[in-house]
Amino acid sequence: MKLKTLFLAGLSCSPGASILPPCEYWQVEPPLNYSDVLYAGWNQIPVEKEVLIYNGSLIGRTYAHHPQLLAVGETVYLVHSSAVIDEDSMGMELWGAMSHDGGYTWTPSHSLLPPALLPNQTNVANFSYWCNEAIWQRAIGGLAVLEVDSEIWGVGETTDFFCWGDIGSGTRGAGRIARQLSSVDGMPIGDPCWLNQNNWTYIELYNETVYGTKYGMKFCDKAADMNAQLVEPTKVPAWSAWLYNDEFYAANNWSSLQEVTHAVWIEQSDGPGYWQRFWRDISPTNNSMRVWWEITFDKEGKSWYPVIEEEYGNKVGQFFNVPDETNI
């Protein structure tokens, strides 16, 4: 088995290696065209129809990202980030829309999780302002849409940026917030509630925002069910408070990784099946500019992140000849 022996070889790429080395693993036809930074020289999947769901500039919001989808039959739910100015900037919210016809038509996108602002704060300011004032930027990004007991829930990840003084800059995670969505029009039902919290939740004063003063910082009644789904290999989100507050290093022990993909189960005729997924290198220096991959033979996915949260000892290897152009 090529993938299994790849780990045992210590990710060797020497000419004398008897197994398939990482630098030769990604062999495809047609070959990758590295000068085509958008499509890598491959023909794209035909587009049946392009549908505009959200145009933030029409309502004074210039940033949108982190889309997450859930299809329940012909009904499709979407959540995404929406900010007035920058990515992960103060006041970024979770917005959402839904379709009843498989994605051809959509409801207008609308706010699901409101901005986490203190009473004296506004989201109409850029990074420079908050950094100069040494103020935490509390942002809520799109993370997942889940179905629990026939209920639909939109989930946001807190992504909170700091940039001041001797400590420099970085991101901390204060936990995940969820809200039930209507199966009729996708509008929020009931109050926002938390799937998890940590010490940063209160250091960053979420309890003094609307999440505390209006909604009481309460946990979701179905938090355990949603948290259980978010560790399943096919549903593990790209971000988490642990990834923000700690480090996840690749097998080389120095490449810092985030933004993991959902895993795909691969059956094999000559051996056991395995889960495979990919990671992004976010190292601030000496970034590999490459995609990283990981496999596990554990069908339940209990042998890797997020069931296991360890900074080192992770068996994540590098696709040496597959560039990550998002880092350019």
Provide a quick synopsis of the model.
The protein is mainly beta and 328 residues long.
Report helical residue fraction.
Answer: 10-25%
Number of helices: 7
Helix-strand topology string: HHEEEEHEEEEEEHHHHEEEEE
**What's the Cα radius of gyration?**
21 Å
Count of strand segments: 15
Question: Which regions contain 5 or more consecutive residues with pLDDT less than 50?
Answer: 1-22
What is the arithmetic mean of pLDDT?
Answer: 88
Major sheet description = 5 strands, antiparallel
Q: Which overall shape is indicated by the principal axes computed on the Cα atoms?
A: globular
Percentage of residues in strands: 25-35%
Q: What's the N-to-C terminus distance?
A: 34 Å
Q: Please identify the structural class as seen in this structure.
A: mainly beta
**Multimeric status of the protein:** single chain
Word description of this protein:
Residues 1-19 form the signal peptide. Keywords: Signal. Strands 11, 12, 13, 14 and 15 form a five-stranded antiparallel beta sheet that branches. Strands 1-2-3-4 form a four-stranded antiparallel beta sheet, with no helix packed on it. It contains seven helices and 15 strands. The longest helix is centred in the N-terminal third of the chain and has 7 residues, at 2-8. The protein has 328 residues and is mainly beta. It has a domain at 56-245. The model is unreliable at 1-22 (pLDDT under 50).
What's the structural blueprint in terms of helices and strands?
Blueprint: H1 2-8, H2 22-25, E1 63-72, E2 75-83, E3 93-99, E4 110-113, H3 127-132, E5 140-148, E6 151-158, E7 160-163, E8 169-172, E9 175-181, E10 188-197, H4 199-203, H5 210-213, H6 223-229, H7 241-245, E11 257-258, E12 264-266, E13 274-281, E14 290-296, E15 316-323
Antiparallel strand pairs: 1-2, 2-3, 3-4, 5-6, 6-9, 7-8, 9-10, 11-13, 12-13, 13-14, 14-15
